[in-house]
Design brief:
The chain is mainly alpha-helical. The protein folds into 2 domains: 47 residues, no CATH class; 47 residues, no CATH class. The chain is built from 5 helices and 2 strands, in the order H-H-H-E-E-H-H. The protein has a two-stranded antiparallel sheet.
C-alpha cells in the first residue's frame, strides 16, 4: 500500500502514508480496512502507463525502475509480513499454515516417523 503511494507520489520517505489511512482499533475493522486500502492502492497503480514503469526512482538509497521496484519490494514486503505473522501465530500457540513446502512442525513430525 505504501509502495503504491510512493510510486504514485513520485517519492519515498520514511514517514509517508497514504491519505485516510488509520490503524484498526478492533478486529471487526481489519477486513474492511484492508479491503479499502488495497482497493485504493490498486487504483493508484492502475493509472500507471507503460512508460511510467520504466521511470527510475530512488528507494531509500537505491535507484530502481518502477517496474523492478513494484515487483521486488512488494514481493519482499509480503515475505517480511509472512515472517512476522508466522512468529505471532507461533507465540500465540498456533501452527503456521503450509505455504511453499512443509512447515517446521511438519518437518519435525516427518523426522520422527
Amino acid at each position: 500500500m505504501h509502495v503504491s503511494y510512493g510510486v504514485a507520489s513520485g517519492a519515498f520517505t520514511a514517514d509517508a502514508k497514504p491519505p485516510n489511512i488509520k490503524r484498526p482499533i478492533t478486529v471487526e475493522e481489519l477486513a474492511p480496512g484492508y479491503k479499502r486500502v488495497h482497493e485504493e492502492a490498486r487504483e493508484r497503480l492502475r493509472t500507471l502507463k507503460p512508460i511510467d514503469l520504466e521511470k527510475e526512482m530512488q528507494f531509500f538509497g537505491s535507484t530502481q525502475t518502477v517496474s523492478a521496484l513494484l515487483w521486488n519490494i512488494m514481493l519482499l514486503h509480503l515475505v517480511h509480513h509472512r515472517g512476522q505473522l508466522s512468529v505471532l501465530v507461533r507465540l500465540a500457540g498456533g501452527v503456521v499454515p503450509e505455504l511453499f513446502g512443509p512447515t517446521r512442525e511438519q518437518s519435525r513430525a516427518a523426522a520422527r516417523n
